[in-house]
Design goal:
By secondary structure, this protein is an alpha/beta fold. The chain folds into two domains: 5-302, Putative sugar-binding, N-terminal domain (Rossmann fold), CATH 3.40.50; 313-498, Molybdenum Cofactor Biosythetic Enzyme, Chain A (3-Layer(aba) Sandwich), CATH 3.40.980.20. It has helices at 7-19, 27-38, 69-77, 94-115, 135-148, 202-214, 239-243, 247-255, 270-285, 297-302, 313-316, 334-344, 365-382, 403-422, 436-446, 490-498, and strands spanning 5-6, 44-49, 61-64, 82-86, 119-124, 154-158, 166-169, 172-177, 180-183, 233-237, 261-265, 290-294, 326-329, 350-355, 386-391, 431-434, 451-459, 462-466, 477-481. The longest helix has 22 residues, at 94-115. It is globular, with a radius of gyration of 22 Å. The N and C termini lie far apart (45 Å).
């Protein structure tokens, strides 16, 4: 079992990684080489996002909430070099995920043909390794092979996400918790009843998940059409290789691989992803094609998105209204609970409204709970106060529920919480949604967003949508707060700034 890296261990581990640049080059030199290589990279970067939080590192990029042909044609025809499609597949069953990704891949293939654009496809997943992997990328790969003859040499697997404290060192993926770097399999995320796992080393994780899919769903009893005895080929790319400046050697290492490979990537800073991109762009020129399963760092690099300052209150709040703001919290992870407790202790003028998730056990209970919460929220917001609607913190899934049933129940509760937003008669001064399923449901169903713009971040890793003209509240800034992101006081600091 990999050990946790505490305090000095964590600092020394990251310092040791920093030392790998010594006498070889610098991150600044990597950036110069990357920018030079990128001048000849003319592909449209298509990012499929399994919840709305994948825009954590980008800005001024369009986000589509459907994959209809008209939307994809518009996206491929846009002058922007990248766009996101929100699939929300982390809330889907495996069967629905398979069907949706097959349809998305078919529409991408058709839109690319019609607009005569080459593309690079990124499946953006969770930096704590939850989600429908490898099902999603397997469906994409098979469908694009069938539709346009896309022959992928490998899949880049890179869950690094610095803003969230997720690092991969010597093949092991770590999650920063306070002053510790914790191997991912030792975190609460690995115990997820739907997407749990036992390996922190990426090679072991990939083999574990591929084996589960090979058993037609394995321990999660997910019935999809993907049954295979194929043992995945996995190769790693180390920090030493990325920082050696011997890009030709790494290029040849990947070029000479025979058959399809999962390529697990070490990374602790953006320069590592840029070094990887230099090699991959050269390989693409030589005819190699790669699919990506990554966290939010990879899209930022391949979209060549520059830095921008964190968004300010003036950019986010509708000050011309005397109506209050709203915070909706659906995520159940411990980090979210601690952030809620920190916000409660702040003494800010907030109206606390608990949404009793256990109401699902009574016929019509969730609907009644949504009506009650909405009435209280509306009353508080009319008085100019900020309403905080949060799901009760106790576990609501009874013993014996399958992972698919738990996922379905979570979606039902998220839908009921969204009904609170749907019942609002006016645009809130600001709106924050906490949790992936919750924020997706509120964005697509509660706010009726078809196309939004990634405005930037209010805190590192906390993205914001600027709502489009077709939405319920055009022009409103919608803050999407991932359940697993931020420090204990991040939610408090954001609300403090906005109220």
């Amino acid at each position: 079992m990999e050990k946790k890296l505490k305090n000095r261990d964590m600092a020394s581990a990251l310092q040791a990684c920093e030392g790998l640049w010594r006498d070889k080059g610098t991150p600044e030199e990597i950036d110069e080489l990357f920018q030079k290589e990128y001048q000849n990279f003319h592909r449209k970067v298509v990012v499929l996002d399994d919840d709305p939080t994948g825009i954590q590192t980008v800005h001024d990029i369009d986000v589509y909430t459907d994959w209809e042909m008209e939307s994809l044609r518009n996206a491929f025809s846009s002058p922007q070099n990248m766009f996101f499609v929100l699939t929300n597949s982390r809330s889907f069953s495996a069967v629905k995920t398979e069907d949706v990704h097959r349809e998305i891949a078919e529409h991408i293939a058709r839109a690319a043909k019609q607009t005569a654009r080459d593309f690079l496809l990124i499946s953006r997943g969770d930096s704590t390794l939850r989600g429908h992997f490898p099902l999603e990328t397997r469906v994409l790969r098979d469908t694009l092979q069938r539709e346009i003859g896309m022959d992928y040499a490998g899949e880049i697997f890179c869950p690094f996400f610095r803003e969230g404290g997720r690092y991969t060192i010597n093949g092991v993926h770590y999650v920063k918790e306070g002053t510790e770097l914790v191997p991912a399999a030792q975190t609460e995320f690995a115990k997820d009843k739907t997407f749990g796992y036992a390996h922190s080393d990426l090679a072991g994780y990939i083999r574990e998940k591929c084996a589960a899919l090979a058993k037609n769903g394995g321990e999660n009893s997910r019935k999809t059409s993907y049954e295979t005895n194929e043992i995945p080929n996995v190769v790693g790319i180390t920090l030493e290789e990325l920082r050696s400046f011997r890009f030709e050697e790494l290029e040849e290492k990947l070029y000479t691989l025979k058959g399809f490979y999962y390529i697990a990537v070490d990374a602790v800073e953006e320069a590592d992803i840029k070094a990887l991109a230099i090699v991959l762009m050269r390989l693409m020129k030589r005819g190699k094609e790669y699919l990506f399963r990554s966290a939010a760092a990879v899209p930022r690099v391949f979209g060549n998105i520059p830095d921008r300052p964190l968004l300010t209150r003036g950019e986010l709040v509708r000050d011309k209204t005397d109506y209050g703001g709203m915070v909706v919290v659906g995520s159940y992870v411990k980090k979210t609970t601690k952030q809620l407790e920190c916000l409660k202790a702040s003494g800010l003028p907030l109206e606390w409204i608990e949404f009793r998730a256990s109401a699902w056990q009574v016929s019509g209970g969730l609907e009644d709970e949504a009506a009650r919460a909405a009435q209280r929220a509306e009353k508080a917001m009319r008085m100019g106060r900020t309403a905080v609607v949060y799901t009760s913190r106790e576990a609501v899934a009874p013993q014996g529920m399958t992972p698919e049933q738990i996922l379905g129940l979570s979606a039902r509760i998220a839908s009921a919480v969204t009904d609170v937003v749907i019942r609002l008669g006016r645009s809130p001064r600001f709106l924050i949604a906490k949790g992936g399923i919750t924020s997706s449901d509120i964005g697509t169903r509660g706010l009726r967003v078809k196309r939004a713009q990634a405005e930037g971040q209010v805190q590192p890793g906390i993205p914001v949508w600027k709502l489009g003209p077709e939405s319920r509240f055009p022009g409103m800034s919608y803050i999407i707060f991932p359940g697993n992101a931020g420090e204990e006081d991040t939610l408090r600091r954001i609300v403090e700034m906005l109220v």
